[in-house]
Specification:
single chain; about 150 residues; alpha+beta; HIT family, subunit A; five-stranded antiparallel sheet; 3 helices; binds zinc ion
């Protein structure tokens, strides 16, 4: 559990692999979860809430989030995409863009559900590799799209 005086982990040099960034936001891959393609968009400066950004900056952030969502739809064809901005543990604006499949271990619960049913975990472990194989191409297309549309 983080304490208000702890250094902010999102202000530290990024430990996650950065796929793309500009002066406002960075896009990082999130590995090691049950959902292949999970991607995070992090505002570069330490701001907690969307309404602390100017409307133009807020729109710029969401343009990045929506482009990630669009490329996930095109390249990974998930059954649903979850967009989440919680920030309860790290009060530094970031969005989770999480592709979901009806067959995934946690569906239809949020991915943070601590105890997905064991039979779903086992079944998903058999299906997940085929989707994981698409992720390198998804990342390549995402970097292309971000670079083309958002300088
Ligand atoms: Zn921060």
């Amino acid at each position: 559990m983080s304490h208000p005086t702890d250094p902010c982990p999102l202000c530290a040099p990024p430990g996650d692999e950065v796929l793309w960034q500009n002066e406002c936001a960075r896009v990082v891959r999130v590995d090691g979860t049950a959902q292949p393609g999970y991607t995070r968009v992090i505002w570069q400066s330490h701001v907690a809430e969307m309404t602390q950004l100017t409307p133009a900056k807020r729109q710029g952030l969401m343009d990045v989030v929506y482009l990630v969502e669009q490329i996930q739809r095109q390249e990974l064809t998930p059954d649903k995409i979850n967009l989440a901005a919680l920030g309860n543990q790290v009060p530094h604006l970031h969005w989770h863009i999480i592709p979901r499949w009806r067959a995934d271990s946690h569906f239809p619960e949020p991915i943070w559900h601590p105890t997905p049913p064991a039979e779903r975990v086992a079944a998903w472990a058999l299906q997940r590799p085929a989707i994981e194989a698409l992720v390198p191409h998804y990342h390549a297309r995402l970097i292309e799209a971000l670079s083309a549309h958002l300088a």
